[in-house]
Request: fold
Amino acid sequence: MSISTAARAPMSSRLARLLPGVALCTAISLVSFALQKVETAYLGHPLVEGLVAAILIGMCVRTFVRLPARFDAGIDFTAKQILEVAIVILGASVDLPVLFAAGPALAVGIVAVVGLGIASGTLIGRALGLHPKHALLVACGNSICGNSAIAAVAPVIGARKDHVASAIAFTAILGVAVVVGLPLLAPVLGFDHYEYGVLAGMTVYAVPQVLAAAFPVSPLSGEVGTLVKLVRVLLLGPLVLAFSLIFRDRSAGTKGRIQLGKLVPWFIVGFLALAALRSAGVIPASMAAPMRELSGLLTLGAMAGLGLGVDLRALRSVGKPLLLTVGGSLAVLVTASALLIKVLALHG
Reply:
């Protein structure tokens, strides 16, 4: 066997392993896209946006169909890697001066909401009887970036595996409910598209859910929400560094070790780089719409992967204190964000 043949073999094996899950996500995204087109044709506008439909269909498939394990690798790949590519491509369609129209007040508001979310979520969990580290995991997941924050914080603070699993399972499920419900708040609060994008970016659990909650409202809401969410993700680095110092003497072994390369995800760098090129005119304005469309199509597949990762049956294993902690923490985030948007005048 030649060297080139040997090199191609692992690649073909990996593609074969990913194919079933990627194909399933693609099929769900196509159905969701078609549903949105039908709704628009007959109703004038979609009642359920394609991004939300993809999540809901994926959840139903995962909950009511026993999928073989061979689908898992492709589903995970679509929900994570494809989404990251979609976010990078989205950067080529945004104009940074427009997104930063709120000025330094936006950065101040993001930091304030994240800090308040972590503190209040931890206190609520403690008051409801959760283990302190369990409460802290839930608070960090809600306040920063969901599963990534929980996974990064858990080894640093020495959290138990069952606490990690339950925090991830329930916050993911509740996050889908927020995707469906949050857009309904925009008219109630009197927010314009920029303000709603800030609200979504400050409050929604994870990056893909921000896209699903914000883009159906408007492209501007989606772009602002994405930027705000990515700034929240960047706060994970300082947070983990702080926890490594706080818990250093309480943890053993490698629990205090930090992999700095994982604290600034590559897709954030890519998004900002393409956004800077677009703002500088290197990427022409005529490319904005096609790049946004391509990003949207990839995101649709990622939403299907996200839904396929949520099993509603997991609710049966979640206790009432955890449910109330996640819900209470989220309520604080939404309330604080809405107030800050008004007080700091965070509008475009």
Summary: The chain is about 75% helix and 0% strand. Residues 251-256 have pLDDT under 50 and may be disordered. The first helix runs from residue 3 to 43. The chain has one domain: 3-343.
